[in-house]
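Holo prediction. Input below; ligand is alpha-D-galactopyranuronic acid.
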Amino acid sequence: MKYFARRIQKLDGLWDFAFADHCDTPENPRWNELVFADKISVPGVFDTLPPTAGRRGTGFYRTCVEIVQDGTVEIRLGGLGLWGAIFWDRKLVGVDDLPYSGMSFSCETSAGEHELIIAVDNRLDFKRTPLFSQFYDYYGHGGIYRSVEIHELPQLSIDRALIRTVSLQTGEIAAKLLFHGNPGKTAKLGFAIDGDEFQTIEVAVAEGVAEFYAIVKNPKPWSPESPCLHRICVKLDNGCAIEETFGLRTIEARKGELLLNGKPLTLHGVCRHETHPQFGPALPTQLLAEDIAWLKELGCNFVRGSHYPQDQRFLELCDQYGILVWEEGIGWGDRDNHFSDPGFCSGQLRQLPLMVKNSYNHPCVILWGFLNEGDSSSQLARPFYASMAKELRRLDPTRPITYASMFFEKDIDFDLVDVIGINAYPGWYAEDRDKVRPLEDIAPRLDRFTAFLKENHFDDKPLILSEIGAGGIYGWRDRMRSFWSEEYQSEYLAEVCRYLETHPRFCGVALWQYCDGRTYQSGYALGRPRAFNNKGLLDEYRRPKTAFETVREYFHKSQK
Ligand code: ADA
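Structure of the complex:
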């Protein structure tokens, strides 16, 4: 979105930096002990840089901000990890305990120069950061992952205009306005679509929210084949305006299929982490563009954004390139001790509204997911699964919801969601370790699961193979085609592709995974050579493996 008549500073660039190994209370640091002797990039992580590489502790990021008017400032963070405390002139403004989530903090201030410090902690402390645990199979980096902005807020302005498609045929949309400040019971405003003349209307406001309907004159539905976008500008009497980009499209789960604009979808995709050996999750724009280019080259029309709310720049690119996205809250194999922890549960529930609000206008996002491989076989966890599903439906009734399960026939929560996602690794995490190259395990395992869904009357729910894959180490070619070789990985994925071609019960796949990514810095890495998850079709530097070509052929052929 773009704002007019609002002073915005993007604070990306070099900030001062200090690191502390043992800061007991990062929300109340001993300022006199900190020496800001270094420089660091924002966005940027500190735990890949030589002096602090692989270390866990608190990184203090500091910059100066010039404010032109007394009033409210909003500090917008695109996402950080694992935990952050935000200080304005050394006073605590707020705490960000939701890794990867776009969050805002505001405070009153005066015109002049101010100091902004963000203390970022990457220690694995369940109390401080219940949403990230040591056993999560991706590296918990310390740093400011995404852009930081300062907004000087006018007395009254529009924070967001959330756009929903009402009718593809007539181009009718509903615009929900979220205000900053108090507009009173009604607000006069003008709106213009796709650069047309402004129309003036008056809207009723309740609890800081208003809604109006409008018609897009030349409605062009958004789809992967034709990713057309529209723009709406909404302006208040005081001149404050917001422009939002959106797409006209519908998405629904019906009779075992996912329908985009009423037509059945087949999803050819990959799971993707935001990761790079040097940048961690703070990916430069060049790399985002490169990732999109590889995804297109691969023939993907789908990405599962594993396993956290996505970088808004990536979603913008997916809107523009017509790549469908499953966006999900953070989570990885959480168990009963998580679901009985109030900090974990409240963090999960606080993250959903942020994710939905930040990504609502992206037509590319077609599914909301949550709790990757959480214990969906547990009676204890079931009420929490129900709360997450209920909350997502309340926040956005227009998109189907799902979660990626690893529990097959033991799962007890499929009734709670619209789309079933199953993560399966037959032939990799072998049931029978005596078997050499157990590729023939793939088909029967998946068949057993689809039979179970039928028997249990879940055939009306679309089914996605939300993960499947095998490790292949880049450059490791082996005449015996054994585990970890590029050959085994490639043959494994060829078998998966062959299976999918003849089993339309699956309306899509998200292969695990797009590229290799750094994982545990601990004994958990014993099953992860190099301490990387090596199941990428490309390695961590985006060099394609043999399997890339295998999958590319299948994805391109299936699209014809
Ligand atoms: C799980 C998990 C992934 C990854 C994968 C693997 O399915 O959801 O994040 O860890 O296993 O490589 O084993």
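The mean pLDDT is 97. That is the main takeaway for now.
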